[in-house]
Amino acid sequence: MTSLLAVRDLTVQVPARALKIIDGISFSLGAGQTLGLVGESGCGKSMTCYAIAKALPRGIAQTGGTVTLSSGAQADGQGRAPSVAMIFQDPTSSLNPVHTIGYYLESALFRHQGLRGSDARLEAMRLLERVGIDRAKSRLRSYPHQFSGGMNQRVMIAHALAAKPQLLIADEPTTALDVTTQAQILYLLEELKAETGMALLIVSHDLGVIARLADRAAVMYCGKIVETAPVTELLRRPAHPYARALIDCMPSIDPADLEPPIPIPGSVPLLDSLPEGCHFHPRCPRASGECSVRFPAPTNIGLVHEASCYHPVVA
Ligand code: SF4
């Protein structure tokens, strides 16, 4: 199957300081599939999304590799590049406070679908209703500060849908929301994915979110992908000690589970002082001498399951 998104050896740097934020990562995503990028804050997940969306912040540049979006994966028939939309962690600060929700949505509908006037207004109302916001007609006159964080995330999703995306990038879409709203937003994303057939690239530090939505997961550490696997396989048989550690530090809500979460020792190193070899070695309980010399190449752990580790947890 042709990939909708193919990322090959992507490298992103702060050129002025020669700092590598993303270091030669590769992955692909087919139409209708969901890939989860997981890892601690500062591992490069968000920058990967910005690079794919061609929206890297000023002072940060893609210095290597390719990001290919191919409409061949969809029955487009006209050779158009697939449309990409993105939603962010903090919806309220992502919305312009001086514009109404209606202005925000109708502008997007004009830009992406050429709709204006009453056509744009009707479609904006339909999108608001679709993402679960009632009294859509009057809500179009509201400002972001009049909405809760969860409602603003729904507005962001409606805005993304205005682009009829074939790929939706969701960067920590539930992190700033309370638990019940998180569940509602995840359910909405699941529904919309099933309805539209769009592919989803979801970023989270929370393995529970990835487990809920993704078919496959890629674990990132210090700008590199250290393990990729189907989500169920990753949760059952993590191979990389970092993936194992991420699972072990998840709190359980099962009262019968008396094992306390195990914190990962130390913290993610700064980009300007990355340890040589495998960047995880100062925190890794399985590290040996060779781990601090050279970064391990990816090896097959199982069918479509790879990890970059000299001493994987499962072999
Ligand atoms: S390569 Fe070595 S240090 Fe890195 S995760 Fe594997 S065992 Fe640990």
TrEMBL record:
InterPro entries: AAA+_ATPase, ABC_Ni/Peptide_Import, ABC_transporter-like_ATP-bd, Oligopep_ABC_C, P-loop_NTPase. GO terms for cellular component: plasma membrane. One of its GO terms (molecular function) is ATP binding. Residues 5-247 form the ABC transporter domain. One of its GO terms (biological process) is transmembrane transport. It is found in: Cell inner membrane. Keywords: ATP-binding, Cell membrane, Membrane, Nucleotide-binding, Plasmid, Transport. It comes from the Bacteria. It is a peripheral membrane protein. Belongs to the ABC transporter superfamily. PANTHER family: DIPEPTIDE TRANSPORT ATP-BINDING PROTEIN DPPD, OLIGOPEPTIDE TRANSPORT ATP-BINDING PROTEIN APPD. This is Agrocinopine ABC transporter ATPase. It comes from Pararhizobium polonicum.
